Amino acid sequence: MPTLLAIDTCSTKCKVALLQQGSVSFREGNELQKAAQHVLVLIDNLLAEAGLVYNQLDALAVVTGPGSFTGVRIGVAIAQGLSLSSSTPVVPISSLAILASAASQKFDGDLFLSCIKARENEVYFGVYQRTGDDVILVGSEQVNAAGAISSEELAGERLRIFIGIGDGWIYREQLEKSLSLELAHCVNDNFTSMEDFCRLAAARFRKGDVVNEEQVLPNYVKEQMDYS
Question: What is the dihedral of CA 216, 128, 126, 193, to 10 degrees?
Fold first, then answer.
């Protein structure tokens, strides 16, 4: 099991976690939308309590979005800086993938449909398939109005078990109609734990899905959207 530091500045409160010897410890900011001020302090405190320094980490993991543009930029910038200074590889992970991975631990299903609210009555959407202890993106992530979300990869699928996860499923009727499918289960919230995040990051680290600091990029999905 790797020793891994996970960083999430895309949530309402910034969160950091340390996976060490199979156990996860984490810290969370106390104020809303204060990731830039809190996250490095949280990281330093977490590592100090564990008796670790940065170059003892096997990897960093960061949520790269989609989500708040400000939160995405903060997390990516911090991961880039820490990776550069400590020569530690990074595991970049989509917020939609973490949702799918969390759902895959709770439900038996074939495909996990992550959907979270965006601005302007749109949603972020991605289809993931469970593969061992990982979830693999089917097609591409997208952002659009709920009634305009589509997936060629799901066209004609009738015998699969579809699991919906995320607060974007408040538009369930529009989404099911647009995708021509019915969900077997639907969890209409964005709750995931730092254990979910660390578990997925560790699985991808073991597969070698790591990048250097120059390759850690924001996952905006639709870059022209003006989030701040």
Answer: -70
Radius of gyration of the chain (CA): 17
pLDDT per position as a tens digit, 179-223: 999 999 999 999 999 999 999 999 999 999 999 999 999 999 975
Write down all domains in the chain, each with its CATH number in brackets: 4-94+191-215 (3.30.420.40), 95-187 (3.30.420.40)
pTM here? 0.93
Evaluate if residue 43 carries a pLDDT over 90: yes
Q: What is the pLDDT of residues 61-108, one digit of tens each?
A: 999 999 888 889 999 999 999 999 999 999 999 999 999 999 999 999
d(CA 123, CA 145): 6
d(CA 101, CA 93): 11
Task: Check if the beta carbon of residue 228 is closer than 8 Å to that of residue 69.
Answer: yes
Supply the pLDDT for residue 31: 61
Question: What is d(CA 222, CA 142) in angstroms, rounded to the nearest whole number?
Answer: 8
Cβ(197)–Cβ(75) below 8 Å = no
Give the angle subtended at the CA of 204 by the CAs of 199 and 208, to the nearest 5°. Answer: 145
